[in-house]
UniProtKB/TrEMBL annotation:
Superkingdom in the source lineage: Bacteria
Organism expressing this protein natively: Desulfofundulus thermosubterraneus DSM 16057
Protein name as annotated: Stage 0 sporulation protein A homolog
Modified residues (4-aspartylphosphate): D56
Signal peptide per UniProt: none
A matching Pfam family: Response_reg
Domain Response regulatory: 7-121
InterPro entries in the cross-refs: Bact_response_regulator (IPR050595), CheY-like_superfamily (IPR011006), Sig_transdc_resp-reg_receiver (IPR001789)
Record lineage: Bacteria, Bacillati, Bacillota, Clostridia, Eubacteriales
Alphabetized UniProt keyword annotations: Phosphoprotein
Function description: May play the central regulatory role in sporulation. It may be an element of the effector pathway responsible for the activation of sporulation genes in response to nutritional stress. Spo0A may act in concert with spo0H (a sigma factor) to control the expression of some genes that are critical to the sporulation process.
GO terms for biological process, alphabetical: phosphorelay signal transduction system
Amino acid sequence: MTDCRYYLLVVDDQAGVRRMLLEAFTDDGYEVVVAVCGPEALQKLKHGGIDLVLLDMKMPGMSGLDTLREIRKLDPDLPVIMMTAYGELELLGEAKKLGVRHYVSKPFDLQEVRYLVRALLADRRPARRYLEVIG
């Protein structure tokens, strides 16, 4: 089976944000995997096949930065877009040191997020298929 779709991992503790991004990117033709927290995201990443991560900066338990540090151990080159609230902007310096080039502030413009995802994936070939790996 040949499948050229990209797989996105959305990590956010807010159900409304996860649902909005799941619906929008599914409509755009992406395969979307969701996680509620850092440990769940890392478990899903260990299966391989994720092409890009949309990661919330502030989550209960393992923070977005801690999750990002662990993501970098698994895949140093995986594109990550951080989603931040206004009061978390000071944490972006650390995220940039960990290779994050793009972030969006909540509440974000969905069209901006779509543009960033397309731009980051433009020169990247789809990774191994996530569902084939775990299926």
